[in-house]
């Protein structure tokens, strides 16, 4: 690079020789043109890309298995494709609830705040049910 900035023409001649010598050392003394090395470089890049795709595909599959496992732990059996045996109850109560002003609350709140509010309400409902013999 320093030779490129030289003002004297004689220094510029050294540049060509220096470049030729370095190019020759890269090619290990073989007389090749850049076009000769292109197929080799493309094969190398192709193999590297194939390896990278294979690694990422394996990582994706592992992550998919982890996600599926987590979902199966969280979901009820009916959602996992398992057969759910019907149960008979002599008495049942169905609870309907209404959050008064929910439309206004949700319009004035961030989605995260609405989700937190609902989560708190359902947690309280579940705590009350857990204190009884109710099945939810």
UniProtKB/TrEMBL annotation:
One of its GO terms (biological process) is intracellular signal transduction. One of its GO terms (cellular component) is plasma membrane. Keywords: Lyase, Membrane, Nucleotide-binding, Transmembrane, Transmembrane helix. SUPFAM superfamilies: Nucleotide cyclase (SSF55073). Residues 93-136 form the Guanylate cyclase domain. The keyword Transmembrane helix applies. PROSITE patterns: GUANYLATE_CYCLASE_2. It holds the Pfam family Guanylate_cyc. The keyword Glycosyltransferase does not apply. Its main location: membrane. GO terms for molecular function: adenylate cyclase activity; guanylate cyclase activity; nucleotide binding; peptide receptor activity. It is found in: Membrane. InterPro entries: A/G_cyclase, Cyclic_nucleotide_synthase, Nucleotide_cyclase. This is Guanylate cyclase domain-containing protein.
């Amino acid at each position: 690079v320093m030779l490129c900035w030289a003002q004297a023409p004689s220094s510029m001649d050294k540049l060509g020789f220096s470049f030729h010598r370095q190019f020759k050392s890269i090619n290990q003394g073989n007389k090749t043109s850049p076009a000769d090395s292109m197929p080799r470089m493309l094969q190398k890049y192709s193999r590297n890309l194939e390896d990278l795709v294979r690694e990422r595909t394996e990582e994706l599959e592992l992550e998919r298995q982890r996600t599926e496992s987590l979902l199966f732990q969280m979901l009820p059996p009916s959602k996992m494709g398992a057969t759910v045996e019907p149960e008979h109850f002599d008495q049942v109560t169905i609870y309907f609830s209404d959050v008064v002003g929910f439309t206004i609350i949700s319009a004035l709140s961030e989605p995260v705040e609405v989700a937190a509010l609902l989560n708190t309400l359902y947690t309280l409902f579940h705590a009350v049910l857990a204190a009884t013999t109710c099945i939810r």
